[in-house]
């Protein structure tokens, strides 16, 4: 079938709004205990690679709508027509499926985004008895490893990057990881499922998680020297399997780490343990409040002192300087960290 799609005329709408106007096209699946609602829509295209787009097929192959549920963040909505246009152009002939649940939003190959924004919803569907296929980020070891650990048959996993025409598409609700703190039963399901799959390893009670990419600690040697005084074990996630990362964190009573994807592992820590998160002064994002709330962690963010004198380009405002700092390295005050550790570990 030939599909007609005009990106500049595509209308963004919620799946719930679409079903309210077209009730014959599907129904809602409400998981009340977890606070989530999925929408089963008949005859939809699911397409994209690192960004997903869901389009209901109308008479004659017309594609006038894109579901806003496709992306976890409102600013991403503007890119949906472009994602759909490029995917239709490059995806080849559609693969027809009787049923599928798609989970490959932006950042889906990142540990934090995957655990908080996709795996939580996968677990919710599994708890409802769903046994159909999942469309996951292609070439994502994080997604494949976690689903294998949780016992999801690999035959149920389909890679994104194709155009799938699904007879019943289970559209997941928009829920970003930043909002997960308001869904504690869902957080508890995530934690319990991971603990069952990756039982805590004995021995590691104080842990420092290194970063080897961006957002590194510039004076890390000084910080490591300090942490050794307090008997910390240094872990580099890239040197461990995902199962080992999760298992190591299950026995931790105090963790210290630069802000990054590894902070998703705090969902495994002991309740009422300590979490010290290190931040550059140019990028501060408190996106692990779900772990803090669920486990009642003693949370201490330590932010590098702000020195805007290093903003030397006259055309750049302070706001622009801060906004460009998402990947900035950080210089951590060892004295302040010592005070935090003395108080936390007293």
**Backbone CA Rg:** 22 Å
| Total E-strand runs | 15
Query: What structural category do the secondary elements indicate?
Result: alpha/beta
| H and E string | EHEEEEHEEHEHEEHEHEHEEHEHH
Distance between the termini: 69 Å
Low-pLDDT sequence parts = none
Helix content: 25-40%
- Give me the number of helical elements: 10
Q: Please outline the major beta sheet.
A: 5 strands, mixed
Entry keywords:
alpha/beta, 5-stranded mixed β-sheet, 5-stranded parallel β-sheet
What's the layout of helices and strands?
Blueprint lengths: L10 E3 L1 H7 L4 E6 L4 E12 L5 E4 L8 E3 L12 H11 L4 E3 L3 E2 L8 H17 L6 E3 L4 H9 L7 E3 L4 E8 L12 H14 L8 E4 L10 H10 L3 E3 L6 H8 L4 E5 L15 E6 L9 H7 L2 E6 L14 H6 L10 H11 L2
Parallel strand pairs: 1-5, 6-10, 7-8, 8-9, 11-12, 11-13, 13-14, 14-15
Antiparallel strand pairs: 2-3, 3-4, 3-10
Helix pairs in contact: 3-5
Word description of this protein:
The protein has 346 residues and is of the alpha/beta class. Helices cover 29% and strands 21% of the residues. The chain has 10 helices and 15 strands. It has helices at 15-21, 80-90, 111-127, 141-149, 184-197, 220-229, 242-249, 289-295, 318-323, 334-344, and strands spanning 11-13, 26-31, 36-47, 53-56, 65-67, 95-97, 101-102, 134-136, 157-159, 164-171, 206-209, 233-235, 254-258, 274-279, 298-303. The strands form 4 sheets. Strands 2, 3, 4, 6 and 10 form a 5-stranded mixed sheet that branches. Strands 12-11-13-14-15 form a 5-stranded parallel sheet, with helices on one face. Strands 7-8-9 form a 3-stranded parallel sheet, with no helix packed on it. Helix 3 (111-127) crosses helix 5 (184-197). It is elongated and about 70 Å long.
